[in-house]
Predict the 3D structure of the following.
Amino acid sequence: MRQLATKPFPFFVGLYSLEELVTRDSRVCVINILGNESRKVTPVSHEYSKGNVVAGVQYGRRGILETRIGDIPVYRSIRDVNKHGHAFDIGVVYLPPAAVSQAVWELVTYNKDLKRIVIVTEKVPVRDTLNVRYICQDAGVDVIGCNCLGVANAWDHVRVGGALGGDKPEETLQKGSIAIHSNSGNFTTTIATYLQTAGFGISTAVSSGKDVYIHFAAPEFLYAAQNDPRTKAAVLYVEPGGYYEKQALDWIIERKFSFNKPIVACVTGRWKKEIARPCGHAGAMAGSGDDAESKERWFDSYFGVPAFDPENPKVSKKGVRVTSIQHIPAAMAEVYRKLDEKPDFQPRGDLSLKPWLEDKLVKLPHSLQIPVMKAVPPYDTQIQEISRQVGANYLRRNMRNKSGATRMNPATQVAEMHGKTVLELSRNSFEENLYFSIGQIMPDKADLRRMNLLLSGFLRTGDNRMPAAEAARRNDATPNAVVAAEIAAVGNHPMLEKVRAISVNLLDLIREYQISDESTPLSKELDRQIPKLFLSKEKPGNNAFEEALQKEIRTSTKLKPPFRLCRHILETAEGKGQGIKDRLEFLLAAFGLCLFWNPMLGKRIPRQAVEDSISYIYLVARISAVCAMRRGKNPHWEKLSDPEGPYSHPDFTDSLFRLLFGRKPGESDLTELKYLLGLTLTNGPGTLSAKGAKESVSARNAVSMAFVGFLSNTGLAHGGNGFEAVEYLLDRFEPAGLEDPGDAKKKPDLKALANQAAKEYGKYKREAKTLGLLEYKRIPCINHPVFKGNDINIDPREDFVRKELEARGVTNVFLDFYHHLVKELFDEGVTENVFCVNVDAVLAVIALKLIWPEFRKGLWPRREIQDLVFVLFLLGRSIGSTAEIIDHRSRGQDMDCRTPQSEVAFVL
Amino acid sequence: MQIAGLKYGTKLLELVEFPVARCRDGSATLNEIQEMLDRYGKLVVKPFFYGGVGKKAKAGLIRFVDNLTDAIRAREELSFITHTWGAKTLRASGVTFEEFVPSEIEVYFSITSSSLKRKPIFTITPWGGIDVEEVPPDKKREVWIDTFIGIKSFDLTNNLNDLNCPEEYISPLVQHLPKLWTLYDNYGLTTIEINPMRMKKTGNTLIPVACDLRAAFDQDSHAWRRLELPSVTFQTDITPFESEINRLRTYQGQSDVLELNPAGTIIPFMFGGGANTAATESLGEKAIFASDFGGNPPYEKMYNVSRIVFKHWYGKANTLLIIGGKANNTDIYVTFKGIFDALRDHVAAHGKKPLFTVIGRGGPNLVQGMFYAKDILDRLGLPYRMFGHDTSMIAVIEYAKKIDAWWTETGRKEFTDKLEAPHAA
C-alpha cells in the first residue's frame, strides 16, 4: 500500500507551524467525555480555552457535561455528533486502552475534516498503536500520544487533550517564546513553571508521551517550531529509547529542513539501559544505540559544547544540553544572552529549597536545617486555613447499600465491624465495643474508665420517668417502638447541641494555638480568649455527675491536649473566682475530644464524629435506660433513678446486666451477656436495621433520628424473632423441670429429650406434607442457607462461641440439647443430613439460661421474656448502628439511599 | 518480559509451524540423549537462563558434542554456570540439548519496532550467526512491514537477492519467514529475533530451522497470555515485590515498579514517568526501587500499592521520599491519603521504626495532601520535611539523599536514643 508522505518527511505530517497545532479556532470532540478523568479535566480545558469543546461522546448515552461557561452536549457516537451538526477538527481520546484504536477509526471514518487526534490513554498495546498510526497516516491526520497530556498554546489560551497546567492552567501556561516538547507529561508543565524563574514563558507545549511509538516526535516538532514566528527557542525533554532525536538532528544537519533556533535539551535515564522491562514510560527502554548516553552524545555533538555547567556556563548559539531539568532556566537564559535576546518577562521566584512544613521532633545538622518558608500564593493562605483542620476526610459518594464500617465477609459469613469480626468483638464488654464503634480502635484503660463514667452518668441524666416510652408501652408497642419513642423525643437536645458547639471551640483553639500533650507553655493570646469563650460570673454548685467528670480531668496523668486545655480553663476560672459557662456541657465536650483524640489525629475518624461522640454515647446510654426490664421491681433501676446517687459504677456491662435481669451477675453471666451483645452487633449494611439508620442519615436527620431509623426498622421478624427459639425451648424444658441450665452435673437426659422432639417433629412434618402445607413450621435456629449440604454441618460462628464457652467451663444445657436435636433429627430420617445449629440458637439459649432462675420462680411471664430477647438484640445492634450512622454521615450524600426510578416497579 | 532460547521458544515457533531445532531440557535421561545423538549426530548444549539473556556464544557457554560422555560433562559444567550479561550476572537454571543443524549459511532474522520508520521492520541477513550489529550495513537489510498485510514475499525475495543470498535458500526462506509476522502480530510480541537460523537439507528440500530465539513481550497486551507460558518464565524479570504490585496494574493510574537495589535505604514514591527517570538517576543505588505512581491513581489503588511497598521495605529503609513535579491531574490529597493511611496501618500492625520522610510535590489539593501526611506523621512521631513545587524537584531529591546519609550515619540513632530516654516517657 502506498502511504501518504508530506515533504520533507518520508511519512505524513499535517502540521506546518506550531502556531497552528491548536488555536482559538480549533474545535474539539472528546471521546469518553464522562469518564472518570475526562469529566474532571475537560471542563477546565473548555473553560481555559473559552469553549472549544463542541461535543463529547459517551458510547450508548446522551447527556451533558456541565462547565462554568455552559454545558457540553454528549452523544452516543461520532455519527450522532455529526447528525446534530457539530463540526470539529480535533478528536481527544480518553478511552480505556482496548478501545482506543476503534475510536480512532471511528473518528477518521466519520469526520473528513479531522486534523489531529490527541490520545491521552496510557498502556495502549503496541499493536493497537501501530493500527492507530496506519489509520491516521492513511487519513492524513496527525496524532499526539498515546499516553500524553495533550498540547497547549499559551498565546491563544488554548489547551487540548489532557490536563497540562492542572486545574489552574493559567498559572503555568504563561505566554512567551519557548516551545516545549517533553516525553513526560508532568515535566511539560514542570519545565514551563521552572522557565518562569528565568523570565521565560511558552508559545506551545507538547506532551508527546513516551510509548514505544511517538507519533508527534522531535523531527515534526522542531520543523513546526522553526516555522512558528512566536517561538524563539525550544526545550526538549528526552528519555532513552528510540532514534527520534537523532533523526531530527541528522535531518537538520543534512538540511532536510532548515532549523536555526536554539534548543535546550535535557536527557535523563542512563540507568534505563540496565533494565529488562519498562518502568513508567513504556518506550523508555534502551537498545544498544539509543540509551541515554548515546542521546547525550547526539546532542553534544550537535551543540558543539559539553553539557551545561551552572558554575561555568558555556552554551552555543545552537543551544546546550542540561543534565537536570532544574538547569533549564539558567541554560536558556545563557543561550538568550549569547544570542543577545531578552527574556519574555521579569524572573518570577526561584527554585531553591523552600520547606513548607517540618516536624519538631529532630534537630537537623546545620547544613540540612533550612527554615520553613512562606509558600507561594495561594498556597500560603491554604496552609493557614488547613492547619486548623483535623481528622479523617472521606470522599463523599453514594453510600446506598455500601458501608465503610461493617460488612458480611462473603467467605466466612461472619459479620465484621471496622475489620474485626463479631466473634472477636463478642469477647469485649459493651462499653469497649461502643468505643470501638466510634473510634475504630480499642480503648485503653483510661478511655474505658471515662466511657463507663459517661455511660453511667447518662443513665441518670435524662428524664427517667420516660413519658414517651411509657405512653408507647401502655399502647402495647413492641420494645423497638418503645425505645424509638423515647429516643425520638431526644431530638436535637440542647445539651448535646451545646456540647457540639463547645467541642468545635475547644478543637479550634487546640489547633490554632498548637496545644500539644507535651509541656510546652500555653500561648498568652489563648489566655486572653478564655474568659470571653468559657467563663461566667455565675458559679452554680456542682452536681454529682459534674463532680465525677471534674475529678477525672483533674486527676488524669499524661494529659491529652483537650484535657490539658480543659484543666487550664478550669484553673483560670478558679484563679479569677469565676464559673464556667454551661459547665456540664463544657466538661462533656472535653471528655468527647479526649476520648477520641488519638483516632482523630491518626486520621481514622473524622472530626465530626468526635464532635458528635458525646451524642452517640448519650443516645446509647438512653437506649440502655429505656431497655431496663421490670423497672418497678428492679433494685438497680431504683438506685439509678436517684439523680444524686453515686456515679462510680465501674462496669457498664455489669450495670446493664442488672438493668436487664434484675440481679447481680456472676462471672459467667457477664461472659454470656457479652456474647449475646457482641454477636448481634451487626450483620452488615444490607440488614434492615442498618438500612433504617442509613436512610435516616440520607434524609439528613439529627443523630437521634438516625437511631430511630434503626429502631423502627427492627420488628418481630428482625430482632424479635429470637423468642420463637426461646418458646420452643420453654415448651421442651418447662415440663422437664430443669433447675439450672448451667449445672453440668444435673443435666436431664438430653438425648432422650431430643429424640422425642425429633420424632414429634417428624410426625408433624409428614402430616403437613400429606396435607400439602407448603408453609409448615420449621424448628427455629437449625440449618443455614450457606452452611449446609455436608453430612454434618457446622455454623462456624456457633462453633466458635460453643468452644469459647466450653473453654471457660460454661455449661448451657439448651445448647447441648440443640446439638443432640440435629443429630436425632437425622437419625430419625427427618433431615437429609445433620443440620447445623445456627448462630441464632446461641442468642436464644444464652438469653434463656440467664433468665431461667427468675422464670422458674414465676417472676417472668413469657411475654416479658419475649421483650427481653428483643431488647437484647436492640442493645447489641445499637453499637453496630452507631458505627453505621457515623460512617454514613462521614461518607454519604443527601438522599443517596433513594431508589432510582429505573429500579422500582409497579406490580399487579 | 523476555524469553531466550528454545526451551520456551519452541512453543512459540510451533504455534505458527515454523521449523525449529529439536530440543530437550536438562532432565533428559541418558537414553534420551543417546537417542538424540543417534538421530542428529551432533548436539548443541546450552545453559538455560530465565529472561532475555543473550551473547552466550560469545561468552563461550555453548558446547557442541557428539557423544554421551561429552554431553553429560557439558551438562555438569553448564547447568549452574554464571553469565554476566549487561549489568546482570545470572546463574543458569539447567541446560538444553538441541539438535545440531548442519548448514552452509546462517541467517539472521528479526522483527522489531522502528522509531525511525515509525513502523515495525524486519531485519535480515544471510550472513548471520554473529551479532547483527557486527554485520556491515551492506550485508543486511531493514524493511518496513505493512501492519495490515504483514511481511511481503517480494520484499524478502528482493532483499535477499540484493544481499547476494545463494539462490537455493531464497525460496524456502520466503515460504517460512512470513509466519513469524503472524506470531509477532498475534501474541503480543514487540521483538522476535532468530539467530542463527540454519538451512537444513531434507532430501532435495531446504528448510530454515530456528536454532535460537529471543522474544520480548508487550506487557500492556493481553495477547501473550494466550501462550500460557509458565509464570516462572519471567522470574528474573519480576521480583516478588514487583509481582505483587503488578497485580494492581490497571489503565487507571500507574503502578509501575522496578526493584533496583534491595539493600538501598530510600523508599521512593515517584509520580510521573519523568520523575521516575530523573529521580532514579539522581538517587542512584540509594533507591530501593524505581516507580511511577502517577496518572491520578484512585485511593484504593494507591493504598494497596503503598501497603505492599511498606510490607516489603518499611523495615529495611531509612528514608521515605515522595517526589514528583507539579501534577497536572493527579489528586495529591487522594494519593497522600492512600500512602499515609497505609503507613499508619502498617505501623499499627507491625510497630514503629524511625523513618524520615521527605516530600517534594505540586498539583491539585497539594496543601490538603501535605497536611494529611503531616497529621499522620505527627501522630506516629516520625520526622519529615515537605517542599512545594516552588522548589526544584531535583534539589529535593539531592536534599533527601543528604538527609538519608545523615539519618543512616547518626540521625536515626540520635532520634531513637531520644525516644528511649527515660524522660521521654
Q: What stands out?
A: The first strand of chain A starts at residue 28 and ends at 31. The radius of gyration of chain A is 37 Å. Chain A touches chain B through 105 residues (CB under 8 Å). Chain A has a mean pLDDT of 91.
